[in-house]
Batch of 2 targets.
Target 1
Amino acid sequence: MTITVIGTGFVGVVTAGVFAELGHQVYGLDVDQKKIASLNQGDLPFFEPELKELVLAGLQTKRLQFTTDYQVAIPDSQVIFVCVGTPSADSGAVDLTYVESALLEVAKYLKPEAIVVVKSTVPPGSFDHFAKIMQEVTKVPVALASAPEFLREGSAVSETRHPSRVVIGTTDDRVFTILRNLHQPLGAPILQISPASAQMGKYAANAYLATRITFINQIADLCQHNGADIEEVIKSMGFDPRIGNHFWYPGLGYGGSCFPKDVKELAYFSRTVGYGDNWFNSMQEYNEGRITRILDDVLVKVGRVDGQKIAVLGLSFKPNTDDTREAPALKVIPYLLQKGVAQIQVYDPQVQLSRTPFANHSEIDQVNQSTNIAQACQDADGIILLIEWPEIVEFEYSQIRNKSKNQWLLDARNQLDPQALSDAGFQYLSIGRTWNKSHE
Ligand code: UDX
């Protein structure tokens, strides 16, 4: 089958690569000529494990090619996936500009019986509008389906090869049969539901996962005040099969390109339909204010940071990606600068400081990138472990302990051994771990 995948972000490139791997002829399409030229050379505009190999294999077999030309790709294609971004406007409403312009281009060259599958996260109920604007451009009957994407950055390739489920939002049995056959080799359960349910299911899944994280963060905050240890609390709860022992490790709040945006959109949608007082508003507010609250608390515990040198470890929003969207570092670094920190040494295995929004920060001279963890931590008064990259977690911090200083270490992911760090002489700070009290 010939397939076009529009949008060459994480979802688009991975989807294109995996369908090429399954034996289809795939066009990856984007309006960004530079990106397309690089992709055709096998160069990715971002870091994602296993993806380069997947793209190179697709290019080599000639089953995968990248183009900016709708007129080449669309008339050939039986299935067209739309995987362009749907950013948030300030109000929280989703901005559908990219989806709409892709659909309008597709409509110009659509062949009869072709199916347009929207993978981009769009609000339930968008399809009437999409079909209407497309139908104004083409006489070919437009067949739209929704197939929300649930992959996580950092494990995007393996999760696309082995998805937990394939959700197909369509009421048209012909469309469902073609899409079911296309996805069948992935070996996942395939469900047919309405487009609106598929779209709502995507928002609800992300909001639910964000809720778990928010919930456990709130419990961790309470642990700071009552002598309980959050890691022990999690253990005690996780054995309950209704709860489970996964996806709720505490930290500085959820970030990334999906959770914050999707919760905001649900909050916005709730307000527009009369539910002004809704959980999503509260969750969003709590998550947004979390970093400042935690750092205020750290400041009280360590006494002062002005004039000091702090190491910040991890600039991406999570490990195994170079994506910095809604990364904690974007709030932590300005906070420290505002509190008068003299120097910040950052380290990240993939992210270059010059490619983050800090590049234009007025106090960027005070922020330096180190090439390794030891260099970042050298002579630091405080160390902040922001992201649990394996090498950051596995590093022996006792090796770089400077005995002439009262060094503190904030383990914002609760990944390190509190006893070992304490024995090494660090003031160990965490998110809701009261190990020193419970082990006394
Ligand atoms: C998420 C969803 O998991 C995925 O299904 C959807 O398609 C896109 O959004 P992603 O943003 O790539 O994926 O990352 P994820 O691993 O879910 O983490 C999101 C945020 O939550 C990160 O900031 C992460 O650090 C945080 N998180 C995650 C926690 O704080 N605790 C956890 O237990 C898990």
Target 2
Amino acid sequence: MKLEQILENLSLDAGNAKTLFAKAMAVKKQFYGDKIYLRALIEFSNICSKDCYYCGIRKSNLSIPRYRLTQEQIIEAASSPLALRCANVTLQSGEVENPNFADEIAKTVREIKRATQNKVRVILSCGEQTREVYKLWKEEGVNRYLLKIESSVPKLYSKLHPENHSLQRRKESLVILKELGYQVGSGMMVGLPFQTTEDIAKDLLFFKEYNIDMCGLGPYVEHSDTPLYNLKEIPSKEYRLFTSYKAIACLRLLMPDINIVPATSHDALDPKGKLTALMCGANVVMLNLTPPEERKHYKLYQREQSQLDKDITAQITELGAEIAYNDFGDALHFTKENN
Ligand code: SAH
Ligand code: SF4
């Protein structure tokens, strides 16, 4: 698909989009059958040194208590029966760059691998780090890394971040992660203020160009304690959700064998958001295992308390999909390239 075609697809109305979704589902089925893979998500710290204008845990938001789970808490969640059934644990945090942080993560990963007898894939999502740190974590057995580009378009990126945040470094980090042999995930937010349809299309082409193995994609959700909140009108909920579904479908057609994960933000706008995304071409679901006490304070965006602990596995089964328990669910894109 060329830019023009992606733009056309992203602009489809509800009636015509059905054909796009059906095509994406057919491609997904061809590569992944009816399987939906699971990832356990542990948001282990909301301490962040960055100030992204859209994010509720940015360092300048002084109204939230900061936490960091202890190694014991992380290991307990990562080796819980549900995490083992997911066969995957994603550890996510704000961005912290210092040797202590790097060493502690390395130690935690080692302990998780030991406690679970290597029965889980470990995925890290801790922002930009040096090549040395990424290498250290890889050597500890981390399998995948998730670093969303947020927006690959310089003009938009600079509207969403302070001047000292570098899109170039983020892109370079993705290259380094690939070079080190990680399964690399990236991703974006859809429906951001200032974002055009062309920006979205360019991001999808960026993922193709950077040859990523997985993608986390979801709607932008506002947070009143962030600078972006009052800066410009926020697109309607309906637009953000619907466009994110079309973006997922386009990406499935563009990169048929990657893993596509609806972002947690889908459910903040619609209780059935993630489920709908699975019917548009996504094939992976995150289950949040962050202890509830801390999870309250990992608010990247606004959401209701009632949305915290929902387990959607029953609803997935109702859709006729098959949940791939105890399955690493590596991206076929990665497996093919590395065999
Ligand atoms: N600090 C790391 C990982 C945690 S943030 C990093 O930034 O890479 C994880 C993701 O949350 C971000 O990549 C971003 O895409 C998403 N996010 C942050 N604020 C958001 C918002 N207001 N709406 C939707 N997603 C948001
Ligand atoms: Fe920090 Fe990530 Fe939020 Fe940016 S998006 S402020 S790096 S947690």
